[in-house]
Model the fold of this input.
Amino acid sequence: MRLKNKVALVTGGGRGIGRGIAEALAREGAAVAINYRHSKDGALAAMESIHAKHGTAMIVQADVSAEPAARAMVNEVISVYGAVDILVNNAGVNSPAPFLQITAAEFTRLMQVNVAGVFYASQAAAKAMVARGAGGCILNVSSLVATRPFANAAHYNASKAAVSALTQSMALELGAYRIRVNEICPASVETDMVRPALQDPKNLAHRLATIPLGRMGQPEDLGGAAVFLCSDEASWLTGASLVTDGGLSVIPPFGRPA
Done:
C-alpha cells in the first residue's frame, strides 16, 4: 500500500472526482477525511463505501470558502487522526453562462470557492505540516480550461487558471519544508455537474468525437493519478501539472484526424 500510515483530507470528497480520489487514496492505505459543505448524504455514502472495503475514513463539514471554517476543518482532522499528510483541494463550483451574462455576484462566488477555498485550506494544512516537520503533499484539482478555455465559462476558466498559478507559487515556497504541491487538470469527466448535458445525444456524440480514448472519463479514472502524485513515487515532483483528459487536449482544432 503506497499511502499506508498517511492521513489525507479531500475537500468536496463526497461526490464526483473528489469521491473517486478519496476512495483511491483509501485503497492505498490512507486514512481519509471527506469534507463536504452541504451534501452530507454523499459524504456519508463515500465514507461507508470506504469502510465496506476495510478502509479508514471520517467526514468533516466545512465551507472552505470561509477561512475560519477551512482552518477549523484541518484542526478537526488533526484532532482525530493526529496529522494531515495529504491535502486534496477538489471542492469547486461552476455555473455556465455567456461572458456578457455573468453577474458580479456569480463571478465572486466562483472565485471565493474555487480559488480562495484552495488558498485557505492549503495555508491551514501547510502551517500544520510545517509545525509537524514531516513534510507533506498538496494536490490541487485544476482543469484543462486553465490553459484551454471553454466557451460560456469565463469565470470558471479564470478560477482554474488561478488555481494553477497557486499550485506553482506554493510549490516554489513550500519546497523548503518538504511539502510538494502538484495539480491534476481533468476534462471530459462525467460528474454530477456535466451529466445533465450528456443526456442530449448530439452533445454526447460531439464530446466523444473529441476524445481519442473514445469515452467519457469517470471519477475513478482520476484516482490513479492522484495516488501517484501523493505517493513517494512522485517524491521528485512538485509544481507539476498532470493533464487527465482522455487525450482531448491533443485533438487538432478541426476535430479528430482521419
